[in-house]
Amino acid sequence: MSLMKRLTMIFRAKASNALDRAEDPRETLDYSYQKQLEMLHKVRRGVADVATSRKRLELQTRQLQQQADKLEQQGRQALSLGREDLTREALVRRSGLQQQLADLRSQYDSLNEQEQKLMVASQRLQAKVDAFRTRKETLKATYTAAEAQTKIGEAFSGISEEMSDVGLAMQRAEDKTSQMQARAGAIDELLASGALTDATGTAKDDITAELERMSSSSGVELELARMKQELGAGAPRTQIETNPPAPGQGDDA
Amino acid sequence: MIIRILGEGQFDVADDALDELNELDNALTRAIDSDDDVAFRAALTTLLDTVRQRGAPAPADALVPSQLILPAADAHLDEVKDLLGEEGLIPG
User: What is the pTM of this model?
Assistant: First the structure.
């Protein structure tokens, strides 16, 4: 049998299963409406969850980007100080970060797509639920068993199919989000442990320390040289300054 | 005829497109039976594109069951199998 038919049968069977269990279709209509509202609420919450995850991902991407920029800057600084080994180290770390960034971006894209889909689905479900409510009241008012039964059946499978569809979309979005959250947690942990060094720069990584050590030691050298120069230039002058009184003293004598 | 693409909603497709769709659907079923991911992807994309092209989106507040249902465009082969295998052909 074709795939399209097989899928259709699965969905329709679910709807008629629910309908068969009920004694009075009118009760089923009310019960079903309750379920629909619950579903709608769940979908809305799902959209919010996905949006939160997306924002978190944005934040992490920004942090990692800052970190990568910082490493590049450090690489330049190290190179200008003639430390090619440090530059290489910085670049190696940066390429690792860039791998992470690329992964995060693709995750971000897929999450964004899920969010869009879920939003459309939630709007569609809202429209269907509204239509169902109207139809339900009409059907209840005009209820004469045999005639209404078929109409109820149709409205019911229409809405339950929509709910199954939205339910599936929700599930996929949830899977994507939980994957992403596990990953985000791992990155947070790495940032915390210092394996991915803190982007805020409060803690010093070893490249920074080495660079600072170098620049401070070269700073010391510079200072020293300046002092020496001052001393060297100053010593003769003091001699000159101390010399003139001697003739004066001679004058006094 | 109403056809649902999962995740996208319902499309109203003219009946004379059915032969074309059936052929594409057969290719899709073959791909699933032979576990061929590449063929599955290609067949599904063609089938969905045809439905979107030949059909008009049904209004959002229309309460009608679909005559045919198709997996979502980004559905994985295993996902479709799960869907079919979830309750089998005779759900209970």
Answer: 0.65
